[in-house]
Amino acid sequence: MKVSIFDVAKKSGLSVVTVSRVLNGAGSVREKNRQKVLEVMKELDYRPSAAARSLARGKTGIIGLIMTTMQDSFFDEIVNEINGILAEQGYFLAVAVTKSIRQEESHYLIQEDRVDGIILLSPIEEDHYIIEMKRRNIPYVLIDNQKPENDTYSITVNNYKGGYTAAKHLIELGHTSIAHLSGSEMFRSTSERRNGFMEALQEAGLRPFELVSGEYSAEFGYQTARRWIEEQLLPGAVFAGDDYIAIGVINAFMEAGIRVPDEVSVIGYDDQQVASLLRPLLTTIRQPADRIGAAATEVLLKRIDGSMKRAANLRIDPELVLRQSTGVAEQQSRQEHT
């Protein structure tokens, strides 16, 4: 197994930054620590990677990643992919979980002498971040950014196609009464998924059973489904804006004795880990976290080493994952539940 800068840091008992400074020949490192690092490098037969060698040009060997939450298995998969690739290249990933550029975690990372580059994962205040990173000349890449005008260096998912695919799947199963529950309007993906959904319905000459906006949460899905149950007016199928909304919908139906998918089909979005753990297993639209993380890392590293001469926006297609929560529509009307 190839020895990395992290192995040297662990063996020497020093930080990755200190090891990087030794490789960089920085005069700020204590001679005792310098000798310790050099001895460990010799002992482990460590040969600096291209990324580590770039420290000689004043690099830190650290990449910053700013995200708004860690309570999301989809984000977790992206971060794991990024971390794995960076580790192979001799980089250390520093993660800040924050909702604002003004918070200390973000402020610390957005320093030109702290990191070699920054990845923003589904940022909320992306304009402020971009202004500051450009001012400090920090290479960056956005994942799931909210504004099309910031697509210059970004990795996004074709959420329009995802919404279209979800609706098309339900229509092909014979469903004509289809509801859509969407998440927060602050996210670009929300409207894109809804627009794709509506396009598929319009092509089939259908109108939605209901369009409901709320939050990306199981509680929103649960309360909406409870309302349908109390009104005794059910859709034949539901396209949930994410898997958590879908789980809430299914929980409400099952609590009321309404069978999924026998009576109502439900499809989610994201393919969170929980989608393949609950029963019925959730049919969903998968966002390929591995490809997203790999693409973002590639773009950023190319920006850092100067090999990327043109702006790059990569839009990745989502994938339909068929499981147990969707089925063929019954012949009788689904619009009244007795």
UniProtKB/TrEMBL annotation:
Gene3D superfamilies: 3.40.50.2300, lambda repressor-like DNA-binding domains. CDD domains: HTH_LacI, PBP1_LacI_sugar_binding-like. One of its GO terms (molecular function) is DNA binding. The keyword Acetylation does not apply. It comes from the Bacteria. Keywords: DNA-binding, Transcription, Transcription regulation. SUPFAM superfamilies: lambda repressor-like DNA-binding domains, Periplasmic binding protein-like I. Residues 3-57 form the HTH lacI-type domain. Signal peptide: none annotated. This is LacI family DNA-binding transcriptional regulator. It comes from Paenibacillus lignilyticus.
